[in-house]
Amino acid sequence: MARTRLETDDVIVIKKYANRRLYNTQKSAYVTLENLAEMVREGTDFVVRDAKSGEDITRAVLTQIIFEEEAKGHTMLPANFLRQLIRLYGDTLQGVVPGYLEASMETFLRNQEKLRESVKTAFGANPAMANFEALTRTNMEIYENAMRMFHPFGQRGERVEPASPQTDKPAPKDVELEDLKDQLKTMQDQLSKLVKDS
To answer: Which contacts of 42-47 are long-range, i.e. CB under 8 A and separated by 24 or more positions?
Structure first.
């Protein structure tokens, strides 16, 4: 079996058996989903493989960890976000979503320490709100750049629609994208107002 590009000597291989048990090959010990969650928090890289087929099932196991955390009441994923995410499966924009989400999360993580420090020094004051506003603005810029990939000849903020001889009514997916843009704009306006009022 050939190694994937993710598998190096620094990456721990976890084998998942048919009885759903997980085996850490580096420590020669069985582990739980909680142990894997702790490894993720510590920044330890691992790949999960089906013990019989050798198939990489890391994404499925990571999703299961998220499900377990959500079930414990540590909710981070709003129901509306999950609904919108499900709607994008099979959509023409499905290929853009992973890159957008990954870039947004990387931006958030880069700003995470700054956010923590701001909250510690001025709980509920302007610095924290300013950081959230900056993060929202950055995420919106990433989103707009991704959208421009589909409309390379349009100007900034201008939608380039193909001519439709049948009807001028927008497609349902276009309406959903416009709704998402409106929601993000509303959030930005509310954050700006909070910062000004403080």
So the answer is: 44/12, 45/6, 45/10, 45/11, 45/12, 46/11, 46/12, 46/13, 46/14, 47/4, 47/6, 47/7, 47/11, 47/12, 47/13, 47/14
